[in-house]
Amino acid sequence: MSLKVIFFTLMICHIYSTTATSLHRCGRHARLVNSNRYNCFPTCECSNPSCPPAPLLFREKVCECRHGYVFLSTTDKRCVKYSECPRYPEICRGKNIVWNECGSHCPPTCQNRRPGPCKLSCNPGCFCKPGYLLNTVTNECVKEEQCPC
């Protein structure tokens, strides 16, 4: 058998196995994609994660929810519509932090008091109480005058 035939056979087997496993691995409302974000995707708890781009060496095929869906959690990879997510006001732990069904996609912080252009749609989640800003260094909500320089 020639090397070309062996190589061609191996390529067909690889394509078939990749396609077959991707269909089983991703589940409903998900698709297999080449990740460039360290496998960091929106979930019910965090609809807009801040994810650094991954170097080429760390990119891999992963499941991603289709448009309009998010993962139920970071550990439960079922895709659900965001409107079907359980509400998590109890996860807002810490001083001066509250659940807001319609918070900003880019709330002001100590380090960025006037964030640039931002989506106008609602972003449910945990936010600092009015009069407080998030100190992104300590990840705490503090009064504006307590923000570091």
TrEMBL record:
Keyword Disulfide bond among UniProt keywords: yes
Claim: Signal is one of the keywords in the record: yes
Domain TIL intervals: 94-147
GO MF term set: peptidase inhibitor activity
CDD domains: TIL
InterPro entries, A to Z: Ser_inhib-like_sf, SerProtInhib-TIL_Domain, TIL_dom
Superkingdom classification of source: Eukaryota
Keywords, alphabetical: Disulfide bond, Protease inhibitor, Signal
Pfam families assigned to the protein according to its UniProt record, in alphabetical order: TIL
Range of residues in the leader sequence: 1-20
PANTHER family xref list: ACCESSORY GLAND PROTEIN ACP62F-RELATED, RIDDLE
Protein name per its UniProtKB record: TIL domain-containing protein
